[in-house]
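Model: Ready when you are.
Researcher: Fold this.
Model:
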Amino acid sequence: MAPPIKWESVSSALRAEIMAGTYAPGAPLPSIADVSTRYDIGNKTARKALNDLISQGIAVAHKGRGTYVADHPLAPFGETGPEGDALTPPHTRPDTPRPRRTHAARRRAPADAPTAGDDDLHALTTTERAPAPTDIAIILGTGGNDVPTVRRILSDDHGPVALRTHYTPDTEARADATTVVTHTSARTATAEEAGALQTSRATVVLVHDETSYRLDGPAIEYTRTAYRAETIRLSDQYQPR
């Protein structure tokens, strides 16, 4: 009996086809169902294979439309395409640099409210119930339970600039936040962030977290915004005592 096909093997096979030119930059990749049928694997394994391509920067996911080859597929140094030409390296810097935007580091506003720097952005919004990331689940006290989750991909005329995700645990009563704690850090993108921002996982993102607390202490809301660091400048304004 042959051993089961693993997602790594399927990912490698699809990657080879992309580099061979079977799927051109920007072209749609087979759906999860198609990959499952083609390689005789389960949907879970097929999804892992496609997500692996996304995490490598080879593909990008478009919510509701499927998975597509990135504009600049990732290729090892020296690898060539079907005609012998060197493949384009991923996310090369354009001749004219993309203008850097300034955004407010302190939001203190509902997740769907425009804030300084957001006025000209348009959003692709999805709503679902899903587990929050471990660090956020600990703060909200939700464990592994699903919570109402709103995701917004914010874009300007040049493309995506931020992924904003809003988590609100189920509570019997809502109350205005009396304390808002913010934190900003820099790290490389997660697979989800890379897909939403149409970049690779090697890209640095500025992560701005905003936690809202009630008077009696519990956290009632959490908003995480991941910005493409090369296009965003965060500005913080406050009144001295």
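Researcher: Now this one.
Model:
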Amino acid sequence: MHSLEFLEIDKTVYIPENLGECDRRQYLDMSKLILLYQLGDINLDEFRTHGFYALMNMEYYKNPSDIAQQEKMQSITMHSVLLDSFFIKGEDNNLHVIQDYIHNPVKTVKYKAMTFVGPKDSFDGMTYGQMEDGLGELANFTKTGDFECLLKLFAIFYLRPNERYSKVDIDKRIVYFKYLDVRYVYGFYLLFVSFFNYLTKQCQILVDGKEIDLTILFQTNENDSSEKITLDYESIGLRSTTFQLAESGVFGTLQELRENDAFMALIRMYDLTIRNMKEEKELEAHKNKNSSHD
């Protein structure tokens, strides 16, 4: 958190340093501003100013006194530079949103007199079908930039209470959500990207007291011909892995697999991957041993 001290009123105010520290209202407001900035509808100075007002929960008004108005804006401009902490400068010299959180700041959404429940923190309880389809829409949006992909992503995860994803007509749900405030849709996209970053680069979980590293499922190795989960949907990536799991019958039919807990499926994939790696090492060691006797 950034701390701001207002000496004239002897008060200290705290504002978030990044999206992960925002509360629900702040997260939604900042998500929309990030979208506008990335689309080029506002520049960085405007993002800072509007963002500062949003984080401080202030409304803009013009002071009747020109001098007072000028002093106020100078103060806001000075403090709003703090919002640069929402970004990190990449190798391309562009600013990229810091996405290192996996808790969901917006767990419910009320729309057209109905309530929709989003994923839990860390996407706990997510089904394999939701993960598979969600990653598919993420890949589609990355490739096409079609906003409908984000509507579909939102519709995949925000369900009615006790509703099963497998029973949802996504095409109808997309039409239903057509006029939903963009801050909900884009805010969830930012969360899902942040979660995917965690899943592929940092995810380590405890299973029966043993820590396993699920990120090996997403690592690529040019010398390894075994299947890995990827976002490469031209070669169907995860879809291919799904078919293999369904054919094995470990989780039952394809539909039963898609309704299964995503992390349970990932743990099974991890187990299979480790076994394959051990078998390949043993086979290689055996080959080397035989060649040494020749």
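Researcher: Key takeaway?
Model: The two ends are 66 Å apart (CA to CA).
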